[in-house]
Amino acid sequence: MPRADDAFVRFEGVTKSYDGVHLVVDHLDLEIARGEFLTLLGPSGSGKTTCLMMLAGFEQPTAGEIRLEGRPLSRVPPHRRDIGVVFQSYALFPHMTVAENLAFPLEVRRLGRAEIEERVRRALAMVRLSGFEHRRPAQLSGGQQQRVALARALVFEPKLVLMDEPLGALDKQLRESMQYEIAQLHEQLGLTVVYVTHDQSEALTMSDRVAVFEAGRIQQLATPRELYEEPKNAFVARFIGENNRFRGIVEGIEGGVCRVRVGEAEVRALAVNVAGIGKPTTLSLRPERVVTGEAAHHLPNRFAGRLLETVYHGDHLRLRLALLGSDAFIVKLPNRPGMADTLARGTELVVGWRVEDCRALDA
Fold first, then answer.
1. What is the DSSP code string of 183-197?
2. Which of the residues 100, 239, 252, 343 could staple to 259 if both were Cys, CB 3.0 to 4.6 A apart?
3. Which stretches within 127-222 are classed as H helix?
4. pLDDT digits 0-9 by tens, 176-213
């Protein structure tokens, strides 16, 4: 977490309710450092977009305060917050040319004609759209329209840029390309970016830190690596990446490692977030951390499973096994020549994993 005196944006006890009963955002405290790329990640209705809209000024907190560079924003209208916003719908003016769309926020700020033209030129070059000045939005592809929307958010050199699902309408290949471009602009310009998405891959790829939202609260705020490797609760483990989950009862805890009874088997795992001996827990294990064959025989967690399905993914194989009472135990193996031919349905496989790769979390 950034130190308090380094916080560029600060949410202080921010609550939002539309009906006075249900909290869309529940007493949120959050600090964002200058130059940081922070992603708000979560399922629909988790409160992430509402937080962005309150920061932009399009919604008002029911309680609490949002500060930008230490200044309260509650009485500052959206157009005076010096914040650029990029929406999923692009929100371009269809009757204006690209240059006119970019010039609009500068005209509102009463800049001179020469400076407007120079800033528009620079912004278009920044997003690699020089020469598109006289086209209208309908004459552009989806990716080009998104670049124009991004350029419009940057053209007046805002202190902060907010992005609400900006790549949701693009196809996979274009979306991945735009992820790289936005990350490059963030680094080159030293922008402070708050980015909203429900796409976990997007969040892990682009962010310095990710705040995982659920039911109006941040469940975990950490770097992408920490979120994936060290989830703090079962919700984060389930929402970030694929994982195998087992319910069991804690039978013992020694030195940060617990023994968990899963059906008739015993599994050893890190005791990350357990209620105590005799209490239920959820075990989380990433599919790529599971090993098979001879290497599995030397691991503390070792079990035999029956192969139900093999799915070819090019660079890896995804195996589905019946194991520990589940028909959906997943193993991901790097693809090697001829490997798929040896994995016939019904084959018995010995699999194993290290204690430190299995996390015992809340039930």
1. HHHHHHHT--EEEEE
2. 252
3. 142-154, 172-189, 200-206
4. 888 888 898 899 889 999 999 999 999 999 999 999 99
The answer to whether residues 161 and 192 touch, using CB atoms and an 8 Å cutoff, is yes
Q: What is the pLDDT of residue 236?
A: 96
Distance, in Å, from the CA atom of 267 to the CA atom of 358, rounded to the nearest integer, reads 9
* Burial of residue 67 (number of CB atoms within 10 Å: 0-12, 13-18, 19+): middle
Dihedral angle at the C-alpha atoms of 257, 262, 264, 266, nearest 10 degrees? -10
Interatomic CA distance for residues 119 and 41, integer angstroms: 32
State the residue for tokens 């800033």: 119
pTM of the model: 0.89
Residue 51 · residue 221 · CB < 8 Å: no
Q: Which residues in the chain land under pLDDT 70? A: 1-6
The pair phi, psi for residue 185, each rounded to 5°, is: -65, -40
According to the model, what pLDDT value does residue 3 have?
Answer: 42
What is d(CA 163, CA 240) in angstroms, rounded to the nearest whole number?
Answer: 20
CA dist., res. 362 & res. 232, Å (int): 9
Where do we find the tokens 């962010």?
207
